[in-house]
Design goal:
Strand order of the largest sheet: 1-2-3
Largest sheet: 3 strands, antiparallel
Strand content: 15-25%
Number of helices: 5
Number of strands: 6
Radius of gyration: 18 Å
Distance between the termini: 46 Å
Shape: globular
Number of domains: 2
Helix content: 40-55%
Order of helices and strands: EEEEEHHEHHH
Structural class: alpha+beta
């Protein structure tokens, strides 16, 4: 594992903990060159899941794209990287549990919005406005009304 601070390739695992749902492992690591300490989360990964884009093109499922969207939607100091990772784990688990071969970007967007709606209504509205491609204020207003219900 490469150190995020100095990019050295040798790190040592100092602590390992299994998540409460036993679906992932959190490891504390220490860089053997600079001494920097950081955490990693080990989770299963099914790489054969394909995402069907709106254009009809297919590509391999990539959590980085969802994390990018989450970070843009959240934009808050209240959410640590660990909390974003936890949100991503919930989203991934939902997707991999319910879809084995292919999933559409629309379905992924709905799953992300459902997760954000439970956690942060403002982040939900930010994500929904981009995901649903709002063109007018009325669309945003309608989504806000739906959120209140």
């Amino acid at each position: 594992m490469k150190c995020p601070e100095c990019k050295h390739l040798d790190t040592k695992v100092t602590d390992t903990r299994i998540s409460t749902d036993h679906a992932s492992i959190r490891r504390r690591r220490k860089c053997l060159q600079c001494g920097y300490r950081f955490s990693t989360i080990e989770d299963y990964c099914k790489t054969e899941l394909m995402v069907i884009k709106r254009s009809g093109k297919e590509e391999e499922f990539n959590t980085d794209k969802i994390i990018y969207g989450l970070r843009r939607a959240i934009r808050s100091d209240e959410f640590s990287e660990e909390k974003i990772d936890k949100i991503m784990q919930n989203i991934s688990r939902n997707i991999f549990t319910n879809y084995s071969k292919k999933v559409s970007t629309e379905t992924i967007g709905q799953i992300v919005m459902k997760e954000l709606k439970q956690i942060d209504p403002i982040a939900y509205l930010r994500f929904a406005s981009v995901y649903k491609n709002f063109h007018e204020a009325n669309e945003f207003k309608q989504e806000f009304k739906n959120l209140e219900n």
